[in-house]
Design brief:
Layout: H1 3-19, H2 27-30, H3 35-55, H4 59-69, H5 79-94, H6 100-111, H7 117-120
Helix pairs in contact: 1-3, 3-4, 3-6, 5-6
Length: about 120
Amino acid sequence: MNKPRIAAVLVAALVALYVSTASAMTIREFRKFSADEQSMYIGAAVNMLAYTYAANGNVPKATCIKNWYFGKRGVETPGPHEIAIEMGVAEHLNADKYHVEGVILGVTDKACPAATPAQSKP
């Protein structure tokens, strides 16, 4: 399966996961993917999370998440490393209990806390 097709399948899976939170993927299930598939999945999830914040009017938080995870091309950002660390911690604690999406949400909330009232004013 080529990378664009894998990416499309993963994005479709993410959409299905966001539609039904009951079907969130455990870390044990996630680890069955190859390293490339895991990377694409997390990147797509982070991108969708940022888009969701922007679509709901929290553009500062969306921008923070995008910069923290993706940054500028060729410049290393802290996001991927921080998510990998937290994913490992959650996996060690209980790979069947913790969900990938929950780890991503928790890490992004630490990296980009809610905007203060001063930040959210137009």
